[in-house]
């Protein structure tokens, strides 16, 4: 009998799940992707500025996996026919904006946490004598802690504020004092359960990392992430339903019932299995009719809002020889990071073409600072970029603003345990799997791996039936 699988959510996690289902499930399986917005891809959205491709969302993904092999994102790109389109950033350094200067990022840190505090130079000073062996591991087995709490207790406030906070802010738009060590820095968390000092834990985590000589850290798709979305859609061979929100999810004797569509004229779909790949709050609403404990665990996740502002500057505009810079919250700016796009990505440079800068605005808890119109955000970003670089920028020839309201999950301490409990609560409801950044990590590689894992769970359920 022909099986039907619903993938609720058309972001990269949902699309990766759909492709994996097509690969693993029987050939006649019907796969339906429901996306309530008018477009697939989620936070992957490719834009254009003055004739140059500029991402309006994620611009790159990790090239390597924790095991030393290719990341899930690279393998996924190859699987959908884009292996020859992979490109890598130029070998130019990044910096920290501190007190009107751009200081080189210290080398040898782990997401900003140094293994040698004496190598930080002018960026930060560590608290003398705080990182002592106190007779036991930094973390108890299974324990979790905020990254900032651990770093402050061992290295002091300056390292946390000027180095770790901007590094984590660049990825999560969050604050180190509120982000889970186990969720955001799992390698360091594992080492902290055996090592007695933070410096020792950093060095142990770095030593355990599998590195492939010559492999770039990041990769992207020539032509933009929109190509990855389109290729995934083609490979999945799924029925795509856009602008069709799912309102209710109910377990039945044979599978799952979906209530979807506009409230005045709802419709019902019956499917054998479901991959739920939407953000935490809509996921929690759907899970309310399935398991209240799972819904409560998922709903606990908060999100940060950010805005991206891109500028096309006149050809030849001088910029520092950097890929970009991060800004500590202590600087007080709305801009938290900037990418010199045409410096970082050599395939985007054109003779006589514009110089492109993309700035990221806003951190967790700063939503009110983003509540201005596009013109005001553009003016603020332009002025702050000039001040942070140390030289006013010329007027742009073009610009755009992209807002991501509630775009980045904030993994509070205990996040991994909450996710594990939610999944355990759903274990006796086979054929339903959770996927996406709400559970298994931000970044394209993490979302792809999460979607594929969910698809494997669903495929196994279909086989057992």
From TrEMBL:
The keyword Coiled coil does not apply. Residues 12-458 form the Amine oxidase domain. It catalyses: coproporphyrinogen III + 3 O2 = coproporphyrin III + 3 H2O2. Pathway: Porphyrin-containing compound metabolism; protoheme biosynthesis. One of its GO terms (biological process) is heme biosynthetic process. Its cofactor is FAD. Pfam families: Amino_oxidase. Involved in coproporphyrin-dependent heme b biosynthesis. Catalyzes the oxidation of coproporphyrinogen III to coproporphyrin III. Keywords: Cytoplasm, FAD, Flavoprotein, Heme biosynthesis, Oxidoreductase. This is Coproporphyrinogen III oxidase. It is found in: Cytoplasm. Belongs to the protoporphyrinogen/coproporphyrinogen oxidase family. Coproporphyrinogen III oxidase subfamily. GO terms for molecular function: oxygen-dependent protoporphyrinogen oxidase activity. The lineage of its organism: Bacteria, Bacillati, Actinomycetota, Actinomycetes, Micromonosporales. It is an enzyme of class 1 (oxidoreductase). GO terms for cellular component: cytoplasm.
């Amino acid at each position: 009998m022909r099986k039907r699988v619903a993938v609720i959510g058309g972001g990269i996690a949902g699309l990766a799940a759909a492709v994996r289902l097509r690969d693993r499930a029987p050939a006649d399986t019907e796969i339906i992707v429901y996306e309530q917005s008018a477009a697939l891809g989620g936070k992957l959205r490719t834009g254009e500025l003055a004739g140059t491709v500029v991402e309006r969302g994620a611009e790159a993904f990790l090239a390597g996996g924790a095991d030393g092999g290719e990341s899930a994102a690279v393998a996924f790109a190859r699987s959908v026919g884009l292996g020859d389109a992979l490109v890598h950033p130029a070998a130019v350094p990044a910096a920290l904006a501190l007190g009107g200067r751009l200081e080189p990022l210290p080398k040898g840190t782990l997401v900003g946490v140094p293994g040698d505090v004496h190598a930080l130079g002018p960026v930060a000073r560590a608290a003398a004598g705080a990182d002592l062996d106190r007779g036991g591991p930094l973390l108890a087995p299974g324990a979790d802690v905020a990254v900032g709490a651990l770093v402050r207790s061992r290295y002091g406030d300056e390292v946390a504020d000027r180095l770790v906070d901007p590094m984590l802010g660049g990825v999560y738009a969050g604050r180190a004092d509120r982000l889970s060590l186990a969720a955001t820095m799992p390698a360091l968390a594992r080492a902290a359960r055996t090592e007695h000092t933070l410096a020792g834990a950093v060095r142990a985590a770095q030593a355990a990392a599998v590195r492939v000589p010559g492999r770039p850290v990041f990769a992207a798709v020539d032509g933009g992430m929109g190509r990855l979305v389109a290729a995934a859609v083609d490979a999945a061979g799924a029925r795509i339903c856009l602008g069709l929100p799912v309102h209710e999810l109910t377990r039945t004797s044979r599978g799952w019932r979906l209530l979807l569509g506009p409230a005045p004229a709802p419709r019902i779909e019956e499917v054998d299995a479901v991959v739920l790949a939407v953000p935490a709050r809509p996921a929690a609403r759907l899970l309310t009719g399935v398991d209240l404990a799972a819904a409560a665990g998922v709903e606990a996740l908060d999100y940060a809002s950010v805005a991206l502002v891109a500028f096309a500057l006149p050809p030849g505009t001088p910029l520092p020889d950097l890929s970009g810079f991060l800004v500590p919250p202590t600087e007080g700016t709305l801009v938290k990071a900037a990418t010199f796009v045409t410096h970082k990505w050599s395939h985007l440079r054109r003779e006589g073409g514009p110089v492109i800068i993309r700035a990221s605005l806003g951190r967790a808890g700063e939503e009110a600072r983003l509540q201005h119109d596009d013109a005001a955000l553009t003016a603020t970003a332009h002025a702050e970029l000039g001040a942070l670089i140390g030289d006013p920028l010329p007027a742009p020839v073009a610009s755009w603003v992209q807002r991501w309201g509630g775009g980045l999950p904030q993994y509070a301490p205990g996040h991994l345990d909450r996710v594990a409990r939610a999944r355990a609560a759903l274990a006796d409801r086979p054929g339903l799997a959770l996927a996406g950044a709400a559970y298994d990590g931000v970044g394209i590689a993490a979302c792809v791996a999460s979607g594929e894992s969910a698809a494997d769970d669903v495929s196994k359920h279909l086989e057992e039936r």
